[in-house]
Amino acid sequence: MKNLLNIEDLKVNFYTYEGIVEAIDGVNLNLKEGETLGLVGETGCGKSVTSLSVLVLVPTPGKIESGKISFEKSEKESLNLLQQGESALRSIRGKDISMIFQEPRAYLNPVYTVQDQISEVLLHHSKKELTEKALEEIEKDLSKKSLKHFFYKLERKLYRKMLEKPNSLSLKILSKIPIVRRYERRLKKESKKEVVRILKEMKIADPQRVAEMYPHELSGGMAQRVVIAMALGCNPELLLADEPTTNLDVTVQAQILELIRELKGKFGSSVLYVTHDLGVVAELCDRVAVMYAGSVCELADVMDLFRRPLHPYTIALLESIPRPGKEFKTIEGEVPSLINPPKGCRFNPRCTKAMEICLKEKPRMIEVEKEHYVMCHLH
Amino acid sequence: MSLTLRKFSMSTLIEVEELKKYFPITGGVFKRKTADVRAVDGVSIGIVKGECFGLVGESGCGKTTFGKTLIRLYKPTAGSIYFNIPTNVREEIQKLRNSSQDSSRLKKLRKQHDLSIFKGKKLKRLRRKMQIVYQDPTTSLNPRMLVKDIVGEPLKVQGLTRGAERRKRVLEILNKVGLTERHLYRYPHEFSGGQRQRIAIARALVVLPEFVVLDEPTSSVDVSVRAQLLNLFQDLRKDLGLTYMFVSHDLSVVECISDRVGVMYLGKVVELAPTMELYREPLHPYAQALFASIPIPDPTKRKRRAPLKGEVPSPINPPRGCRFSPRCEKAIDICRREEPRLIDVRNGHFVACHLIS
Amino acid sequence: MKIRDRLREFKAGMAPTIRESRVMLLRIKKSPLSILGVSILIFFGLLAVLAPVLAPPPFKGQDPWRIPKDGWMPTPRPPGTAVTEPVMVKAGYTTHIFGTAQDQTDIFYGCIWGASLAFREGFQVVGVALIIGLVTGCLAGYYGGIIDELLMRFTDIIFAFPALILAMALVTALGKTLDNVMLALILVWWPSYTRVIRGEILRVKQEDYVEAAKAVGCSDLRVIVRHILPNAIYPVLIVASLDIGAVVLSVAALSFLGISGVPAGYADWGQMISYAQAWIAGGATLTKYWYVFTIPGIFIFTFVLGWNLLGDAFRDILDPTIRRR
Description:
The complex is a heterotrimer.
Chain A: E1 3-16, E2 19-32, E3 36-40, H1 47-54, E4 62-72, E5 78-80, H2 86-92, E6 97-100, H3 114-125, H4 127-143, H5 149-164, H6 169-174, H7 185-201, H8 207-211, H9 220-232, E7 238-242, H10 250-267, E8 270-275, H11 278-284, E9 287-292, E10 295-301, H12 302-307, H13 312-319, H14 356-360, E11 365-369, E12 372-375
Parallel strand pairs in A: 3-8, 3-9, 6-7, 7-8
Antiparallel strand pairs in A: 1-2, 1-4, 4-5, 9-10, 10-12, 11-12
Chain B: E1 12-27, E2 32-43, E3 46-48, E4 52-56, H1 63-70, E5 78-83, H2 87-99, H3 103-113, H4 120-126, E6 130-133, H5 137-140, H6 147-157, H7 163-176, H8 193-205, E7 211-215, H9 223-240, E8 243-248, H10 251-257, E9 260-265, E10 268-274, H11 275-280, H12 285-292, H13 333-337, E11 343-344, E12 350-351
Chain C: H1 3-30, H2 32-49, H3 51-54, H4 86-91, H5 107-143, H6 145-159, H7 163-174, H8 178-204, H9 208-216, H10 220-232, H11 234-257, H12 269-275, H13 284-288, H14 290-317
Helix pairs in contact in C: 2-5, 2-14, 5-6, 5-8, 5-11, 5-14, 6-8, 7-8, 8-10, 8-11, 9-10, 11-12, 11-14, 12-14
């Protein structure tokens, strides 16, 4: 299976009042086509920043210092996302790579209905398909007997022009004139139909009614489905999911996880799923990357990771899962501040098996077994 | 009286009788009351002295409201709460309630012992015995107060100590939660999340209460800190002889720390049993669906499909009959007409379901 | 407790304040406008304090804010003209540094002594209005319900009063003194503080730590004073510091209209400008006697600018929780 996404030596710094936060310190990841890669770690380990870096959306005061993110856009094209200009990135975002976030209602504009927001994505990326569908409808109307033949013929002319020259100046002008721009209504109707169809795919009951709701009228689970609809509306190849179910109730989380599983099969997307919940990882992912303090410390197939974890941090994480009847095992110490991270391997202050070399030199990522990578001096 | 404690009547700490808490919704020009949000809609349980009582449920089920109403942060709309009253008084109240005679004597007893109608000084003295630890330590500590003032304030307000004695008590409790003298003269924002939660715990425990409501105390902290805090809770319970009510939506954490667990849905308790029994064999359909939804950290045990459909209905207009009936796959006719009562089906295992009784 | 223990306790108690102040100073140093604002105010503060030294009142026994007159000529004399009045020469004045106004009042003297008067006007009006505003705002915000309704409707009524008309009415009724004018300003100024503090209290009231304080058994008063106010006060302080400049401007405006209650020849910048009305008429006099109104005007302008910059600096540095970004 080929690699869809390949992150090499990513370094991201945040320039804050209190100093330079070395949030990401050399992350190496690869995502294969059609798989679900889980990215696990505690708060502050850098997993959200990694997923934001793929879309080059790291918020200020963050800056991507160095690294390479290769994305296989189609059969032949492989782009380095960090070197693309804004307009190239904008055509990729939402269409080839989509992202869903933790708090769905914070990412929906409260003054626009669900319909308007999903249509916006569709009109931006799939305008051609929608125009073709509109033309079909016009042909159907022309074949019937009607008084509005004249207008339909006009509309057909305009839509054909839209198909040939989408950026023509005359169309742009026409779309600004108040009464004339009614011709766009047909396009909007088509996009609305598409929205209802997508919402149905999301297993939302009564999609017509939900499409006309405002975000504040939606419950958490519903809002997350709408956001997923927006993300999958254009059939992206890669879906980045940044803790989408953390804020949801456990039963709603189960519903959303099932939905993601189904949609993955139907749409054929690959998923990068960021979470701190090992249970979700075991449920959903094919391969897992464990992050600590800005770097990936272990990357393996999900069965291998749970059966034979190799990195001390992974072992400690798995042991700290609460089990009834036993005492709670903790990981000594706290997550270090990344303004002055520990020298050498960043886990050494808390590692029970730390050696001399761990304090001095940062270990490299090596393939210990087949497809099981670890970054630790013990191996 | 509360049926859930027939076995434990010797060491009951708290007994709750048909507790209700409604929040009015105003509407219209004159802001008249149009409806109620029925956050807690008739809960009757008992809490044993020294136990850790877990209360689980999803968002909107009323568990946080119940915890806060229990310690009188909210005034109950209806119902009674009895805290540590002698057995003979309790038996007398029960007799009077059952017979529904001589209501003046009942009223007098209630005025003396029923927490839900306490006011003024009596209420203030009560606060010494019941405390709460909040979910988010960032917002539950006053950012403009020093740690020594935050932890010392309960002592000051309750008039329990002065001067040097107070300082000693504050230091004692800080040491118990794992902080030192160096931390006294600092502001909360100078600490990490886990340490802030410890400060909040110190504040709750400095007056040496008997009962502490823990409102999702580990939800806002990291996984590694979570285990430290849970160990701390266990140690403090043994050390200071506390009784906990652990409210959470995280079922795996509750499983490890609680002795008994109650499951709430839409303002009512639908199942209540000792922890191991409940987790091994939940009887109520909602509890079954809830436990089946927990993602298990073992990739060999993946689920095939989501167990529960639909969403939680609004607490403003709960469904008629059994509240879970619209979503229950096993619902029968009576479920839609009559609300089931919480009854003991098996040695301290209580369920509110028509199918079981 | 021994003295040594007490001292140690005191030092430990001061440590967090010192830490916070250090960060505050760092913040001020980073913003040049804040430094400018603080410098301006320090400058005026020094003027106010050192007035007896910089411009010693030559006529003993007279109110030091009465500007001394150097002769009886009806037209102003430009800056640099020599002092003729012997008493003044004895006190140390050789030249009129800023010239004189039409009454031969020394402009330099007036500007220096005007600083302390400006501070007094600002602090008095804003201080009292702040107290009234805080009390009403706290009660309205914390208790809500009918108290809130009554207080806010009362505040709205006061808001509707035009400051100028009220000032004139009060001055006419009670007499033309500076204190009466300041009273009129206080009466129209406090509602804005009420609104601001009420809004903040409504926000802070909902925070968990307020509920936690109630869970511990704190009385309402303690909750408001110890928990809510210290967290709600920042926007009010910012508005108040901006308002000090605004008060000085208002008194100047009232002086211009002749209702300020400050007698003519008094060392108040607004009064000095009002005094020079005749020369602003235009034409030749505008450029010839520019110093009579321009120089006090510059003083007012700089004073208000200083307070405005300080208000902005406050906004950036005061709140310990937001400034860590």
